[in-house]
């Protein structure tokens, strides 16, 4: 079964996205995506962070803020 996305943050340019999610086993994680350049609104995983595992969604979000440039200030990012 697929991960269930809890929150998705997209940058102001619609070029990057970070999703926080919960797995079937109850662990949490996050991943960074970039927009496909062909204009069909697809997102490509950068495969940088999804392997990390956290005990809570808050921990996953905190780690995403620390590891993904500009996500920490959330100014240019939107839900």
In short:
The chain has 79 residues and is mainly beta.
Report on this model:
The chain is mainly β and 79 residues long. It is built from 1 helix and 5 strands, in the order E-E-E-E-H-E. The chain has one helix spanning 57-67; strands at residues 4-11, 16-22, 28-35, 43-45, 77-78. A hairpin with a 7-residue loop joins strand 3 and strand 4. It is globular. It starts with a strand and ends with a strand. The model has no long low-confidence stretch (mean pLDDT 85).
Q: Which helices and strands appear, and what pairs or packs with what?
A:
Elements: E1 4-11, E2 16-22, E3 28-35, E4 43-45, H1 57-67, E5 77-78
Antiparallel strand pairs: 1-2, 1-5, 2-3, 3-4
How many structurally independent domains? Answer: 1
Instruction: Give the low-confidence spans.
Output: none
Q: What is the element string, with H for helices and E for strands?
A: EEEEHE
What is the distance, rounded to the nearest whole angstrom, between the alpha carbons of the first and last residues? 24 Å
The geometry reads as globular
Share of residues in strands: 35-45%
Rg from C-alpha positions? 12 Å
Class by helix and strand content? mainly beta
Give helix % range.
10-25%
Mean pLDDT metric: 85
Describe the sheet with the most strands.
5 strands, antiparallel
Strand segment count? 5
Question: Strands of the biggest beta sheet: in what spatial order?
Answer: 4-3-2-1-5
